[in-house]
Amino acid sequence: MTERVLSVLAAFSAERPELTLTEISRRAGLPLTTTHRIVGELAAWGALERQAGCYRIGLRLWEVGSLAPRGLGLRETAMPFLEDLYEVTRQNVQLAVLDGTDAVYVERISGRGAVNVITRVGGRLPLHATGVGLVLLAHAGADLQEQVLAGPLRRYTAKTICVPAQLRRVLADVRREGVAITDGMIELIALSIAAPVRDARGDVTAALSVVVPSEGTDARAYVPAVRAAARAISRALGAPDRPRSAVGGGIIIQPPPVQESHDAAL
Amino acid sequence: MTERVLSVLAAFSAERPELTLTEISRRAGLPLTTTHRIVGELAAWGALERQAGCYRIGLRLWEVGSLAPRGLGLRETAMPFLEDLYEVTRQNVQLAVLDGTDAVYVERISGRGAVNVITRVGGRLPLHATGVGLVLLAHAGADLQEQVLAGPLRRYTAKTICVPAQLRRVLADVRREGVAITDGMIELIALSIAAPVRDARGDVTAALSVVVPSEGTDARAYVPAVRAAARAISRALGAPDRPRSAVGGGIIIQPPPVQESHDAAL
């Protein structure tokens, strides 16, 4: 029964944030009468809200969700430093955490003049195709790395890394440099500079990035600011000092030409 | 059964974001075996996360909650303007919506040098005691106003308005001025300048505020910036132009001395 309640909630998505009862029933795979009853109970509690014959996620569920330590808790600690980074760069500043084989974005600050990006708070993108994703994957357990390397590695642009062997090298580079610079991997117009955020155990718990226009940007100029902000958030989270932590200037990740993206490249 | 699932989720709060199974069982008022089963199903889905024998709200529930239009949807539209306001003031910038007889905070940006405030994103405070709350209440339906006026009106400081007749006058002032300036009502150290945000139907859908130190602040100096940001967000939400909207300079709300706070003051 818990499953049925959750399937009703899972019927909603960023693409479909408002649904009719019939749509919820179909998307949740539940009979209309069951759906009607569950939706009624969820609405009475405030987990759903009704407007003009449609249902949407309610403020009460947002409130409960905001208690997730890896959501708003992390965000609250990080926010002043994200602000600092935003003030210096006036571009997009993002904070993401690992969930399955995706990076989930828990915060984004965007200037009105910043390059448009496809991410949104609460949204997710695969690890291999984004700067924050590569940082999270580079520091993840070997099992998860092998799972991602086993593919499929979806191509978003000609610059997305879709060759396992190359992805493996990139992950080693990111670990060594302590920063990931990705150019046009998910959208050709956007370049990302990303660095790891560590928790009190010293584990990488999140990744921070600045996303700037790909054209005419000196990516390495952003590296010190991104690295400093990531270290500041880590310190605020109680991370131990890492005197020997990676301090490379940042290698701009160069994907191979598209035609090499077959197994022969291994 | 939906009710039981929701009671498990409602067991978590900002004060108690991590709970053991026994604590969840007690707070939800459910037998341990039932709690164990529901918690297991919620954890399998990602609505709860387990760490070191404790449960906390999971990232998946945060993701679903982030779909609430009055939560992150509103926030995404408002964010660039909140950023602008923050850059001008370097203090606390807050955005709140109405829920029951509370103001629920959907966003807060705080400078590192800003006055400390007790609010947090996802938190709630009563309408009569905060700047954003008075703005929301001033524009709310008559039924809700009467419900709040009927009390009880909890006292937070000597400056909290706890006299119904005075609250009624304040609400009229706020409607006329188009802005609420509250000094020390919830914490003596903080002063708030708040203005309404309207949606496409022209209804007040949120309230925006800047919270600054009470001491040594010229509150009225903040009024134009707060008003401009609130209008800009309203416009982004599709609100109709309001050429005749209130443009008072803002009256600093003066509560009566504490000893008047009994019915004789009516």
Structure characterization notes:
Two copies of one chain form a homodimer. The longest helix of chain A has 21 residues, at 69-89. Chain A is built from nine helices and ten strands. Chain A is globular. Residues 258-266 of chain A have low confidence and may be disordered. Chain A has helices at residues 2-10, 21-28, 32-45, 59-65, 69-89, 131-138, 142-149, 164-177, 223-236; strands at residues 18-19, 48-51, 54-57, 92-99, 102-110, 124-126, 180-183, 190-198, 204-213, 252-253. Chain A is α+β, with helices and mostly antiparallel strands. Chain A has two domains: 2-65, Winged helix-like DNA-binding domain superfamily/Winged helix DNA-binding domain (Arc Repressor Mutant, subunit A, Orthogonal Bundle); 69-265, GAF domain (Beta-Lactamase), CATH 3.30.450.40. In chain A, the strands form two sheets. Chain A has a seven-stranded mixed β-sheet, with helices on both faces. In chain A, strands 1-3-2 form a three-stranded antiparallel β-sheet. Chains A and B meet through helix 1, helix 3, helix 4, helix 5 and strand 5 of A and helix 1, helix 3, helix 4, helix 5 and strand 5 of B.
Task: Considering the chains and any ligands shown, give keywords for the structure.
disordered C terminus, alpha+beta, 2 domains, 10 strands, 266 residues, homodimer, seven-stranded mixed β-sheet, Arc Repressor Mutant, subunit A, three-stranded antiparallel β-sheet, Beta-Lactamase, globular, 9 helices
CATH class of the largest domain in chain A: Alpha Beta
What is the chains' assembly state? homodimer
Spans of at least 5 consecutive residues with low confidence of chain A: 258-266
Total count of strands of chain A: 10
CATH fold assignment of the largest domain in chain A? Beta-Lactamase
| Strand neighbour order, sheet with most strands of chain A | 6-5-4-9-8-7-10
CATH H-level superfamily of the largest domain in chain A: GAF domain
Mean pLDDT of chain A equals 86
Fraction of residues in β-strands of chain A:
15-25%
- Sheet bearing the most strands of chain A, described? 7 strands, mixed
Q: Estimate the helix proportion of chain A, in percent.
A: 25-40%
In the CATH classification, which architecture of the largest domain in chain A applies?
A: 2-Layer Sandwich
Number of helices of chain A: 9
